[in-house]
Structure formats: C-alpha cells, structure tokens
Design brief:
Helix 1 runs antiparallel to helix 2. It is built from four helices and 25 strands. By secondary structure, the chain is of the alpha+beta class.
Length: 461
C-alpha cells in the first residue's frame, strides 16, 4: 500500500514536471497487479457500425473491487487508462468512467478502425476480454445498364445492375412491376470492398412498354436502396373495325353502312387503308381516311372488308364480314270491306236486322326500313299479335253480317211464296143442295139450278 501512496504523492508534489507522466503510468501499472480478490467478471459486446457513424465500446465489471480498467486498440495501444487518454486520437471520447465501467465512443468510423479492441482489468492474474468492431460499407453506386434503350416486342434484352464498393458483398434482387424476377450475380473483391453485378435476361412484349424494371439491394448498411429503368417497347399496330351505322342492326338492302377503323401501335401507325378480300372494291364504296361508307347496300356488296395499318415494326389488319339481308316487307293498313253473305232458312218473323261495320285495330307499321331494327324484335312480335287479334275481330263481324243477311233473304222468299199461293174460296154452284134429303137429290137440285144461278164470285181470303 505504501508503494501506491508514493506515486500519488509524487504526482501531487511534482505535477507538470517533465517525465512525470511515464513514471506515473509505470507506478499505476505496478500497483494494479496487486491481488484484488476473486469473483470479478469482465463483460463487453461486439459492435457493428456503418462507415462514418459512431461506435461505442463499453468495458464493464461485475462485482468490482475498484481494480483498474483500461481499453486498448487492435495494435495493443492504450486508448484509455481509467479516465486518462494516452492515445492522441481526438475521435475517441470518454462517455462514462466509474469503478465498474469504462465507456468510450469512436466517431467517424472508417474501415481502418475495424478489428479487435481489448478490455483489461488489472487483477491477479489480470483479466482480458476483447470486443470486435465491424464496419459496414453500403454500395457507393447502384446503376442499371440496359442493352437496348428501345426494344421490339418479342426480343430478349439484357439488363445489368451493379452495386459498387460495398462491405460485405450485397445481394441484388430484380422486379418487373410487382413481379420478382431471377437474375445471375457475380461478385468481385477489391481490397476490403466488394462489387456485385447481376444480369437479367428479359423477353419483352407490348404489355411491358412503360413498365419499370427495379434493381433492389439487400444490405445490412442500407434499407430500401433501389434504382429503376422504364422499358420502352415498340410493337406493331392493333387494329379494330367498328360499325357506326346501322347500330347493332341488320345490314339490309337499300340501307347505308358506315365502318370505322382504329389502330394503336408504337410508333403510332400512319398508313391505313381499306381493301376487299378476294375481290375488287365496289365503285360506289367511299373511303375517307379510316372510314368506309356504302350509301346504298345491295347483295353484290357481300364479302369481307379488311382494314390494314402499318408502322416501323410491322403490319396488322382486322376484317369485317358483310352480309346484306333482304329489305323489310311493308304490310298495307287494314280498310273497311263489303262482305258477301249467304241465306239461311229460318222461321217466319217480321224482324229486320241491320249490319254495322266492325272496328278493326291495327299495329302502326314502320314508315321506313330504318325503323326496322334487330334490337326491336319484341315490338315486332307485339305488332304481329295485334294484327292477329284485328283479323279475328273482322272474321267474327263478317260471320254476324252473313247470318243477318241470310235472315233477310229468307223473309223475302217466304213473302213471295205466300203471295203466289191462293187461299180458300166459296161458289154458288151447289146452291140449293143444302135442303136436299140425300146426295142424289142435291146433285139434281144443283144441276137444275145452274141456269138461273148468278155469276160466280170468288173471294180471296
């Protein structure tokens, strides 16, 4: 114990004298080897830090008995002895010093700072434990190189993503939109750094135009580090033919037809033309840009009409098959007609019946063929049903008229029949026979009285 007091007194009496500091350190080191007892335990942890950040080293003692703690660098140079810093490096700063802990920070960490740092406890025997500082270096540059800036649909293109100067080596992942793809990676080491290049082979289609291809890095030093390139894909036109008139209807003879051709591609198609497949285009067909017009359809127009569009990539077409139907038939509206009736014998009556014209309902017919359309089939059926009901009413009215007319004719015939037939009448030829006793006498009286009889008279009843 006297040995420990002597350096302390010497330091107090000769503070600031040349050579005093080395002597003080020597005395403290000698004093530190004096036994302090058992049961002390030295504890520390490894440190992982990103280049340029701050690393904190902690040397802790469990069940401390005030033994001396010091921290040494990988070259076994003392960084801190108790709360004193012999190493002339201002990046090391004392964070906490006590009998049970020595905590030191290292700012602006670089690759050269990586290695083992030693915590020592001056006991008998001395205790020593080390902590490892690992320095992470994120990729300094992330670049996607593409084989072709503009690709054509169906081609296979090559993309390369490079992550330079990282530590440790990074992992590269590929995405096209939200879909992950698989690439092939190569790792190159330069000193303590790693450069990783990943290659992706991608066959592109028109649906890939404008879709981002993403190169994403998995590395402990960074989070969500990525870069992307947008694909530019050229493709031949997509062609579509639409019918403007008649709208969703039959193409009938005598009616007009209008077609429109639309085309999309990259680059945008500039050359569009109409033609008739396997035949010449009719002379009355009018083509104006992307439109085709036939003002008066006839059955010679039947056939397939094609719209072709082309750009720098290629040519495409769409077909429209035309079939001309017969024109709609028009039915004249019903009118009041005179019916011919037959007579039917009936009993004698003095009743006279008169006929009245039946009221016929009819369905209004279309004024023109344009009003007859595919989409109006329900209205056509309703009109047909109405026409059928109208015909039924007319038939019933005609039958009633025939019956009444037959009864009239029967009355006329009976009248003429009775007019021609004579009724019962009386004469005076048998006058005087009333008082005769028998038939012979009556005949004689009748015959004898013929000369004196008056002129016969007939009475019609």
């Amino acid at each position: 114990m006297a040995g420990r007091a002597q350096p302390s007194g010497t330091a107090g009496s000769g503070g600031g004298a040349p050579g005093l500091l080395p002597l003080l350190l020597l005395l403290l080191s000698a004093a530190a080897i004096i036994p302090r007892g058992d049961g002390q335990n030295l504890v520390t942890e490894d440190v992982t830090v990103v280049e340029g950040d701050v690393a904190t080293i902690s040397c802790r003692v469990k069940n401390s008995d005030d033994s001396v703690i010091q921290l040494l660098n990988p070259n076994r140079q003392t960084i801190y002895f108790r709360d004193f810093r012999p190493l002339k490096d201002s990046r090391f700063q004392l964070v906490n010093f006590s009998n049970s802990e020595l905590r030191v920070s290292l700012t602006n960490v670089s690759i050269s700072d990586e290695g083992r740092y030693f915590c020592q406890l001056y006991t008998d025997p001395p205790q020593e434990i080390y902590t490892t500082i690992t320095v992470l270096v994120p990729p300094r540059n992330l670049v996607i190189d593409i084989e072709k800036e503009t690709a054509v649909e169906g081609e296979e293109i090559e993309l390369n993503c490079t992550a330079m100067a990282s530590r440790p080596a990074t992992t590269i992942r590929w995405f096209k939109g939200n879909k992950e793809l698989t690439g092939k990676s190569e790792v190159e080491r330069w000193s303590d750094m790693y450069t990783v290049t990943s290659q992706l082979l991608l066959r592109v289609g028109r649906e890939d135009d404008g879709v981002p291809v993403i190169c994403l890095v998995d590395h402990p030093a960074v989070k969500d580090l990525q870069t992307q390139r947008y694909l530019e894909v050229m493709y031949k036109p997509q062609v579509r033919v639409s019918q403007n008139y008649p709208l969703q209807g039959l193409t009938r003879e005598g009616e007009p037809l209008e077609l429109t051709c639309t085309a999309f591609g990259k680059p945008q198609p500039t050359d569009m033309r109409w033609l008739r497949v396997d035949d010449e285009m009719p002379q009355h067909v009018v083509v104006s840009g992307s439109n085709l017009l036939i003002s008066n359809l006839n059955k010679t127009d039947n056939g397939t009409y094609r719209c072709e569009a082309s750009n720098a990539v290629g040519k495409s077409h769409a077909d429209y098959m035309l079939f001309v139907y017969d024109p709609p038939t028009t039915i004249p509206p019903p009118t009041t007609t005179t019916t011919t009736t037959t007579t039917i014998p009936t009993t004698i009556t003095d009743t006279t019946a008169t006929t009245e014209p039946a009221v016929h309902g009819f369905t209004q017919l279309p004024n023109s063929a344009e009003e007859l359309d595919y989409g109006d089939l329900s209205d056509s059926r309703a009109g047909e049903e109405g026409a059928i009901r109208s015909v039924d009413h007319a038939v019933v009215g005609g039958v009633v008229a025939v019956v009444v007319f037959a009864m009239l004719c029967l009355l006329i015939i009976l009248g003429r029949y009775f007019a021609r037939h004579k009724g019962t009448y009386f004469t005076h030829e048998a006058k005087g026979a009333d008082d005769a006793a028998d038939a012979d006498t009556a005949i004689i009286n009748a015959e004898g009285g013929q000369n004196n009889s008056e002129e016969k008279k007939e009475y019609f009843i």
